[in-house]
Each structure stands twice: as C-alpha cells, then as structure tokens.
Amino acid sequence: MIDFPSFDFQLDKLIDHFVKWLTADWRFHFFRGVSATILWPLVRLEKFLQWLPVTVIILAVALLAWWSVRHKRTRKELFIVLAEAAAIGLGLTLIGLAQEQSASNGTWEWAGRSLLAAAVAIAGGFWAVGGRRPGLPELAMAGFMFIGVVGLWDAAMTTLAVVGVATTIAIMVAIPTGIVMAKSDRLQAGIRPILDLLQTMPSFVYLVPALMLFGLGKVPAIMATVMYAVAPGIRLTNLGIRLVDKELIEAAHAFGTAPRQMLFKVELPLALPTIMAGINQVIMASLAMVVIASMVGAAGLGIEVLHGIARLKVGQGFNGGLSITLLAIIIDRVTRGLQPGRESAGEPA
Amino acid sequence: MDNSREIRVAVRDLWKVFGPDGQRVLQEDGGWAQSASREQVQEKTGHVIAIRDISFDVHVGEVFVVMGLSGSGKSTLVRCLIRLIEPTQGIVEIDGENVLEYDVEQIIELRRHKTGMVFQHYGLFPHRNVMDNVAYGLEVQGIEKESRYATALDVLARVGLKGWEESYPDELSGGMQQRVGIARALALDPEILLMDEPFSGLDPLIRRQMQDELIELQKQLHKTIVFITHDLLEALKLGDRIAILRGGSMVQLGTPEQIVMTPADDYVEEFVKDVSKARVMRVTSIMRPPALVLEHSQRLHSAVTLLRENNADAAFVAQSDGSYAGMVTLEGLSRAEHEGSSDLSAAIDDSADSVSPETSVQDLIPMVAGTRHPIAVVDEKRLLGEVDRPIVLDSLAESHAARAG
Ligand SMILES: Nc1ncnc2c1ncn2[C@@H]1O[C@H](COP(=O)(O)OP(=O)(O)O)[C@@H](O)[C@H]1O
Ligand SMILES: [Mg+2]
User: Fold this and answer.
1) Pocket of ligand 1, candidates B45, B47, B67, B75: which has the most ligand atoms within 8 Å of its Cβ, to mutate?
2) Global pTM?
3) DSSP-assigned beta bridge partners for residue B243
C-alpha cells in the first residue's frame, strides 16, 4: 500500500498568516474599534434586561405571545393572559420581598406562592370549564418561570442580549445583501457558494479567527454567531424578492413606479413573509450557537451546558440545555406570529 | 364617433423579436428573417418574432380594438406602446413624441400621467386594500394621502365599488377585482387606457355586463382606448376600429362594419358564416322597448335636456298619432340649435336605419356594426322597439355559448 504522497501545499499556514497579518498593528486597532462598537450596545442591553423587574419581563413575554397568535388576539384572551401574568408577577414580587426581608415574613412568602398557584388555577379553570386550552402565552410564562426557578434568570438575560445583538447585526447584513443579490444574477452566482460554505462549515471553525481578531469574550462569540446565522437571512431575502409575482412587477412598472419605489412599495412588502421566515431562521441559528459561543467566553446559558459537560454535572447541563430549548421554542413561535399582515389571511395552526 | 381625426398614438413599422439579439436577427444575411415565417426564424435562430412590421394610428377618443388568437402578439403589442417590452425596431409616437427615444425618467413620466393599464389577471397588489390599490398610481407620483384618497373614492364610485375601500383584492369576485383594476387606471385620469384582455377571465354574463359598463363609462370619459381581446364579438361590440393580428402580423384594420362585410381573415370569415342561428333569429326576439321617444312637437331645447338627462346620444321621434317619424341624435340636435331653429323637426334624420320585424339578426350585424346609435324596429309606421350593437352581439354570444355548452 502506498500512502498518499506528501505535498508542500500548506493552505493552513497561508490562512494562519493571513489572520496574523490581519491582527498586526493598525489593523489590531481597527478590530478593537469594531469590538468596542459591538460591546457598547451589548453591555447596555444585558444590563437593561437584568435590571428590568422580573414581573415586567414576564408580562412583556405574555403580551407578545398573546399578540403573536393572530386568531386568538381577542379581548377575552387578553384578559385571561393578563390575569395570569398579574398573578405570577405579584406572586414573584411578594416572594422576593419576603426573602429580602429575611425569614420574618412567612405570610408574604405564603401569599406569593398562593398567587403562583392561582395563576395555574386560572389557566386550569378556563381549560376545565371553558374548554380553552392553554396556549403560547402560558407556554412562554411557564418557560421563563422554569428558567428562573432553576436559578438561571440572569444567565438567560445575558444569552438574550448576546443573541439579540448577534441577530440584529446578522439581519442588518442579511437584508441589504439579499436585496442586491436578488437584483443581480451574477452577484447571486458569486454569493451562493459563500453562503453554502458558511452554512456547512462546522461552526467551531468560526471561533478561531474570531478569537484571534477580537480576543476572548462576548464579541468573538457574537461574530462567530453572525457568521453562522447570516446565511439563511440572506438566502430567504433573496428568494422572497425573486419570487414576487412578475405580473405585479409589470403592473407596478405600468403605473410609473421608480426603482426605489419598486423596492419599498412592491418587492419588500410582498417578500415580507419570506423575509420574516428568514429572520426567524437567523434567530434560531443564533440560539443554536449559544453553547459553542460560550467556549470563547460568552457568559450565559451556554456556560451552564459547557460546565455540565466538562465537570460531568449532568443536572446542571440539563437545566442549561432545557432553558436554551425553551427560549428557542418560545422565540420561534412568537416571531412566527409577529409577521405583519391582516386578519383574513388565514392563520394555519 | 371619430369626428376628430387627431392622432393620439401612431405606430410605424414596429417589430418585436424575443431572444438575446433580436436586432441582429432582423438585420443579418440581408434581412432574410423579415420575410421568413415565425417557425423558420425560431428554428434557425432561437428567436421569436412576436410583432412583425405593424403600423396603425389610434385617434383621439376612439376605442381601438386589437383582436387575435392566443399567441398572435396582442399582449406584446400593447406592452411595446409604453415600453413594458422594448420594441426591437420601429416607431411608437404618443402625442407626436417618439417614446422609443425617451430616457427612463421620461418613460416613468409617460406612464404616470398619460397612460393607464388594465391587465387580464388584474395585477392588483394583494398587500394593499382596494383604496390603496386604486390610489397606487397617485401615490408613486408623490401626491398627498388626503388628495389621492379623495380621487380614489371618486373613481371607485364611478365603477360601482363604493363602500369596498377597505376590502382586500382576494376578498372580491373576479368582476369586482377588475373594476378595481379599471379604477386604478382611471385614477390617473390618463388620456390613454391600455386594456389587455380585461374581461377574458370573467364568466360570460359578468363579461357582457362589464362591456356594457365600459361603453357607458366611455360615453362620459371619451378616453383613447386600446383594447385587446381574442373574442370577435367583444371586438365588434366595443370597437370603433378593429385591428386583426395573426402570427404577429396585422392582417386587417377596419371598422366593425368592414370587418364583418369583407373579412380578410379566415377566422373572421368562418365566424361570420358560422352565425347560423342568427339567420333564423328575428329581430323581434332580441329587441327592447325604445328607451326614449320624443314627441314631434317637442321644443328643440327641451329635447336636448331630455337626452342629456338620460345620458343618451340618440332618441326616436314619434308623430302625434304615435307613428314613427325618425331619429334625432345629440349631435344633430346641437347642430340644429346652433343654426337657430327651435323646432324638433329640423333635427330629425328620417334616413336613419330602421328595420322591419321580419329582419333576421344576421342581417342586423352589418347594420349595427356601422353605427353606435340604436336602430328602430318599425312595423307599418309603428315603433315596436329598438336594437343596438351590444344587444345584437350579446345575443350572438349567447347562442354561441349555448351551442358550445
Ligand atoms: N418573453 C418572451 N420570450 C419569448 N417569447 C415570447 C415572450 N413573450 C411572448 N413570447 C411569444 O411571442 C408570441 C406572442 O405572445 P403574446 O404577445 O403574449 O400573444 P397574445 O397576447 O396574443 O396571446 C407568442 O408566440 C409567445 O410565445
Ligand atoms: Mg395576451
């Protein structure tokens, strides 16, 4: 047997050199600048989410979930959801106050727990008597309750901040790129293989250059996440615009639509459902990167999983993993429902 | 109707060749392609000659119908007029300006102000409600919301869609969607309406109704209309003049009367021969009671008012004993009034066509094809009823549909 002969073709070295070149002197400052620009909103968002009272977040999540299920966007639903959210919020506040004032306040703690039970009772009551099955708002509140109860509230807020910033950057890159790609077949032919590469490359690979360019921390995590998550956003924006009915484009032309108006009045609105599906996928891909991103030092839920694996603490890993999954499910369902549109469009369940 | 011969659209030697290099195909090898058949050219070069050397004028205020079977190049032709499709060769003049020399800005201006288009599949924007669809053309012109909505409401009332502003296209029937399509074009108040088979997708009853409404609308608006259809009856019913396309070439151009009397196209000839039922059908079975009958002794001035009020451009006149005296037209009345007479009799046209009750519908076809006014059905001086072009053609369409079904 002859082994594969060795060649002096060292692509790996070349890439190493390139990255080294990128990190030298002035370029280093450039990446520091980028890093600072990303860090600024990230830190503020994280601080803000952690500062927000738990009650407010639960309420906001419940309302978003109520709003996102179009065929249940009724006053009665709103009333039920608000009642549940109020019971949970008040209950959590009471328990929190009781714990702050040490053990002396057993009554408050007791009242708080009863309120939490009341929230469950409201949902159960409407189910048993009114035949109303608990839906997305209940799932969302239960999910956040679980995250809080297992002690991962702050970690979840950190993760939300990282995912939020990464998603925002990815969308800001994806939509314009998708638009120019839709406008030019040559650009499409050029960008497509890059997207394929981005999506098939094992996501670990993004960590190394990100690490070298931006050092340890949340910024390389965000950059690696953006690299991984941007592709579906670009793809679906491109697709959405290309699939707009040619007859409508022609009709728009017939009425004297200028190029910019074509984009904003016809193409983007008509492509919106597809673009929204793309944004949804961007968010899901970002969440899928949470654990991997935590390897370069992004704190949050990912760290829990990582520690769980590294230290063989199955329970910790499970809590972290389940929390990520819950966030993913809730965000997925809510963003799917948030598509603008109108009532009669018929919402498939 | 075409007392004004002013030309609004002039098309000269227009060619459209689909394919990567249509111009080259037309010029190369001594221009053999220009005289070769569509199939030959397609086989040899992969190009399709969709429009072949077409010339015509469309006069101000006329309904110019382009008729032909599927694939004859009708859609390509209308699109070439406003360059939704770029012609390969030739001239298209609108109000004396060659639009093929326009730059992008000028073309956009043309489409915003001079022309409005109506599409076979309506082409309504599904993400906009009826109001915003109708106001679309005004919106891209940058007109304020308030003023464009006011215009849209006006136009919607005209096409009978008052109260539907908030609905979305997919909530409307086909006929109503096309009303929105027409309203969207009318909202621009364009001089020229381009209609590409606007009624082809509608079922026969609605189609006839929409045709009648278009005729009514045109009586008020006097637009220059280029109307595309594959339906000869529709062409005869609506057209002031009809151009017949076949395989990309124009095989005949004439008034409905000329088209029926001396058909140049086999298809038309077949059709005219084919109206077998029309031979046995009598005028009495399709006529309607006269819409408007004036007294012979009526004052000229009050007659004019009466016609205007009834939105009619002609009426019959009866003697005091009820016998038929002839017809007056709005034109004739105005002329007589102008000449200073105050008596109705001065305006009566006793040479106007009238027919006996035994007349067959087939014999009526050339008569109604020659005039837009109604024709009196008279039995021994007694006015029995009237027929006009739409009635005759609708009756033919019905008998056609009955046989086909
Ligand atoms: N974009 C195109 N590319 C190539 N051929 C075309 C294109 N559009 C139309 N054609 C051809 O041109 C001819 C005329 O088409 P069209 O104007 O749509 O006819 P009509 O409207 O009378 O049915 C047809 O043979 C059609 O196949
Ligand atoms: Mg067509």
Assistant:
1) B75
2) 0.81
3) B66, B253
